[in-house]
Structure formats: C-alpha cells, structure tokens
UniProtKB/TrEMBL annotation:
Its main location: membrane. The keyword Transmembrane helix applies. This is Protocadherin beta-2-like. The gene is LOC140691916. Residues 29-135, 136-244, 245-349, 350-453, 454-563, 570-678 form the Cadherin domain.
Amino acid sequence: MEVGERKERFLKQRQVLIFFVFLGITQAGSEPRHYSVAEETESGSFVANLLKDLGLEIDDLAARAPRVISKGKKMRLHFDRQTGDLLLNEKLDREELCGPIEPCVLPFQMLLENPLQFFQAEIRIRDINDHSPVFLDKEIVLKISESITPGTTFLIERAQDLDVGSNSLQSYTVSPNSHFHLKLQESPSGTVLPQLVLNKALDREEQPEIRLILTALDGGTPPRSGTTIVRIEVLDINDNAPEFAKLLYEVQVLENSPIGYQVAIVTARDLDTGAYGEISYVFSQASEDIRKTFRINEKSGELLLTQELDFESIQNYTLNIQATDGGGLSGSCVVFVQVMDLNDNPPELTMSTLINEIPENLQETIIAVFSVSDPDSGDNGRMVCSIQDDLPFILKPSVENFYTLVTNRALDRETRSEYNITITVTDMGTPRLKTQHSITVLVSDVNDNAPAFTQASYTLRVRENNSPALHIGTVSATDTDAGANAQVTYSLLPPADPHVPLASLVSINADNGHLFALRSLDYEALRAFEFRVGAADRGSPPLSSQALVRVLVEDDNDNAPFVLYPLQNTSAPCTELLPRAAEPGYLVTKVVAVDGDAGQNAWLSYQLLKATEPGLFGVWAHNGEVRTARPLSERDAARHRLLVLVKDNGQPPLSASVTLHVLLVDGFSQPHLPPPEAEAEAAAAAPADALTVYLVVALASVSSLFLFSVLVFVAVRLCGRGGAARAGRCSVPEGPFPGHLVDVSGTGTLSHSYQYEVCLTGGSGTLKFLKPIIPNFLAQGVERGSEANSSFRNSFEFS
C-alpha cells in the first residue's frame, strides 16, 4: 500500500520508476551478442569486428556514430569508427573483475544514432593461469594422540587459488614418510580438500614430532604450485572429543555494525578432565576474507567483528569453527552469518555520452546517455529518475537501467540559449537517498532569422545645394541570431526605374547603414526620389530583408525672381501708353515675374522703388499691376520712368528690378481692349484683317469730321517727334522663354503669362492703345515662338 502511494506521488514529477524492466529503443536487440578475450591481453588489442553484427557498412559509421557504453565509470572497451573493430582500452584482470565467479562476463551496449538504437552484447574474459596456489598458514599444526588407530583421517587447511576452471587448484602432494599418506576429498562446492590418513600408530616416546611438506598443484600449463609445512605433535591418550551444542548457528548482522560487535558465541564441551578437557576454538578452512572480517576468542568461543560488514560486497559468510581439546581431539560446527542490508548507498549515475551544445531547430536530439545503479537491495535498490518539469527535455528509458535525455521539441536559441538540467535519482529506501547530476546544454545558433529593419520605410529630408558626401540619414536593421549570423551588411538595391541615376545620387555604408548624398541636389531639377536598401546577414545561406527609403529635397532660396514682362534685355524698351483722361486706378500695365523656387521662397511681392512723378503711379504688391494713383493733369510730364522691385519671400530674400516707360496720350478716355478671341483671329488672317481695318477707319473718318480732326492733330504732334515715334515701336522678344521659368499660381502674377502691350507705330494711320496678348511661353516650342512674335509686332502697327 505504501509503495503504491509513493508511485502516485512521483508520477506528477515526470519520473520513471525502474523495477528491473528491460526496455529498448527502436530495434534494440533482445539477445546479446557474445565475444571473448583472454585476461591480461594488452591494451588496444583486437576483440572482434562488429560491422556484421550491427548490420552496418564502413561508409555508415560516420553517420550512425556508434559508441560503446557500459556500467561504471571505466571505459574498458573502445570502438574504432574507422574500421568497425572492438578494441581493449586496458588490460583486464579476471580475478579483479569477477573473483571466483565463472564464467566472467562483462555486459556492454552499442549505441547507434540516426535513428537511435541499442545493441546488447557481452564479452567473456577467459582465465589464464596467472596465480599460484597459496596456503594462508605457512605452518599447519596437528596434535595427534599416540592412541589414534591407523586409518584415522585428519583434515588440513586447503590452499587458495584465484584462478578458475582448469587453472584452479587440482591436487595436493605430501612429502614421503612412513606414518601418513594423502587423501583428497571433494566438498559439495567442488573444492578439493586435503586429508592426512594415519598409516601406522604413533609413538610419542619414539618420535614426538613429525614434519611434512604439503604441496598444492593447479591444472594450468605449465602447472603452478604452493607449499606449506605440516607439523604433527604426538600427544598422550585422549578418549573424548569436544562436542558443540549446535552443529549450525544462524545469525543476522546489520551491515555497518561497529568493529568489535559480537556476532555469536559458540560453545562446546569435553567430558575429559584436566588438560584433555580444556577446549580452544579456532577457524577451520577459513578464507582470507573471513580471517580479515572475524576473530574468535580461543577460550570463550565469542565471535567478533574485526571490520565493518558491507552487504554490497558480501551478503553472507559461512564460518567453520573447530573446538580442540588438550589431547588433540576436535569437533566442528558451522556459523552462517547473513548480512542485512541498510540503505547506506545513494544511487549512482554514470554518464556515458554527453553533448553540451546542440543546434537549434532540431527535433528529438539526443543530449545524454547515462545509466543509474544502486548496490543496495530490495526497495533500497529501486530507483526513480527525474528532471525538472519546465524544460523541453524528457527522459526515455532504454536497456538495463540506461536512459537517454532527448529534446521533446525544437529549441529556439533566440528564446533561450542555455539550459541547466538537473538529473535526480532517488531510491525507495528508508531514509530515501538521492543523487543529483547537473549538466549545462548550450543551444548553438542557426541562421533562421532574417535582419529586420526598425521601420518598413524611411523618409529623409535634405536641403538642396548640400555639400557632397553629406550624411543624410541612417537605416538600421537588427538580427536576433548570434555571431556571423547576426552581422548585418547594408546595400543599395537596383532601382525599379532605370532612369533614376541612383548610383550617382546616394551611397550607403555597408557596416552601419549610414546614407550619404554623393552630389549636390537641386530642388528645381529633382524634388524627390526613392529607392530600396537591403540588409543581409553573413549566415550560410544568408538571409536578407528590404526597406523603402524616400528622400525629399527641401527647397532653398537659390533662385531670384525672373521678370517675364517687360523684358529688360532688348535693345528698345517697351513704352506703355496712358490716356490723360484715365481715372485713378487705371491699369497701366502689369509686371509679370516668376520664381523657380517653391513655397514661400516663390511668393513674390512688388514694390515701386522710383518714379519720375512720385504719387502718380502705384504698384499692387501681390499681382504687380501698375495703376494710376490720381487723375492726370496737363502739368504732368508726357514721359515717365518707373523702377519696380520684385522680391521673393525667402530667407534671405532675393529680388529683381524692372524699368517701365509710360507715355501720356491726349484724347482717349477709354482704351480699346479687344477680346483675346479677336486677337487670335487677327493673327490668323494677317493681310485681310489689315484691309478691313483700313476700310473701317476711312468710313469712320468721313462720317465724323470731328474725329478726323482729332486724329490729324494727334498725328501731327507725333510726327513732330519723329525719333520718339520711331522709338515707340514695341519690342517683343524673339524665341521662346526659358523652359525652367514656370508660372506659380497664387503669387499675384497674371495666369498663363497674361500681358498687356500698348505701342504707337509711326508712319501709319492706326493707333492701338492697349492690346492683350496671351502667348503661353511654357507650352509653345521654338517653331511657334517666332510666328507668335511676328504677329505680336504686326498687331501694333498703323495701317
């Protein structure tokens, strides 16, 4: 009942109980293979080739990793993985290993991996005749009364021979004499016992002492021998031999009993009196172990311990005790001492195979192969083996108290790189004894994790006009592996757009992920670009990942405003006509300018810096329109020169200036502003439209004398200023405007480069004050530019 409760308790601790059950892993052999070798064979000697028995070829040895495992800490055998031979690791002494037990067999196991297999085998150690017979007593004393009749036998202490079989003790001889001959008797255990047989009566007065040489011979080739002296003392007549109260004494003694402990008391009595009735007790046929362990009081028969008993070494002793009286007669009894076991030996764990480092991600990997043993008996020798519950390892029983420690799932080094495993072996005795063995298992890294960027995408900002080799940002990736598997190398990946010159724009430091701009960037040419970077580790095979990098070029105020109208690089400046009847706020012209920058760097403002007549004109700050500030008078000069400043909103601000020429004209209160559609039609039909205009002017001159007079008056005045009239022709730029000048909506300039030109052409009868022209300088090409300019000039000529 108690044992059952103990089992219940230990099942919760993942423990495996051993009840001398032989369990095997896959294909473990049930019948052991047998091999033999002679004792004292030199170390390294060949025992057998195991390839056939294991079912392997030489090419399979490396993969299956066979090795020898056996009980105990000594590895007496060695397996050669190159040849498949089983070799000796040391000289084997049969007598040391097995003592008198025959046959002397050492069991061992062959362990194969991939898959795991156990093969049971045993090697028999053959005895050689390396020990001579030895008498424990150099001299044997026999006291024989002269009254003993011929034919009486006397038992003599036998010799000891550690060899077995035919090499053990086989016979005895005695030196030639006239009184005794030798008789050999076989005991129930098979031991040959020497006996002296009296041939003729002894005469103490004739020969009080006889000395004989007893020789013991073994059966080896050549035979070995040992001798002792048998000294016979002839005594007077003694007609009663001592008799023991019991012929067999049975006692039980606990092991580890103290020295001097009384095992038993034997008693014998002799009916004789005097010296013939005095009894002395001695051991008879006692082995060396008995003589070292026990002693007997010659007078009292008290049997005492001279050294501690050890159940694990010897479980029982049989002692022959002889009681001899003063006349040489003797009697004998047997004392059977049974040693009682105590739980005084903790379990022993012997590690046969241990792998301290294993790679991660492997299934059911063997970590260790070990055996457990307890020399105690019964419950004292039953054992329970366990490890901690919170580990990814399990214990699997194999054969003859062998266990394998294996992983029960794949290990992940990134989760845990080291395990401390404590194997606990506990016996079932009282009190319970246990043994613990700790091992450390390191999980080696496998390249199973690709580098991971800290961000899936990076946005970097760099201001234009940067210095070359400027550090613009850093990408970072980490790898949870270790060693070379965690060393990350960065690189630029080929761009998806082959037109992006990535190699000339940026570079990356392969070691730390620093990004550098290789050249100065221009916001107006390239406002943004993106590319992918790769991070690869140095594992085998290498793993990699990617991240997107977007570079935004930030604008710098590096472009001054550019004036589209009026252009200042022509030979003849453009003159704007202003009727003297114009009201305040009259639109004289508009300054059109653009800025190649962006954002507030492209916000333009206009300012009138200088004027011929201060206070007459004003410039709107946000759209560049030049308007009259007050009514005109006759006192105002006919020609005016205005200096307009165009400034952006950058830091620091950049600016440009333009000079405007304004000519005051009498007689028109409202200027003629033809719509843009009419101008387009006039440009398409050049000569025909001119004729139509002439006819309309002629009809208007005839029908209105007043109007004709005014025209003549104006023409006369203009002709009087011939140079001025010729200078009044509007100058229009040839060819298209630069392509990088773009209109920026919201800056106050006219949309689509909307311009006004007023020109007076001398020598013609047509006067046009204000005419809108709408060339799209960005959309038109070189071919259309010259045609547009020609139409532009023709539209301002007098007919």
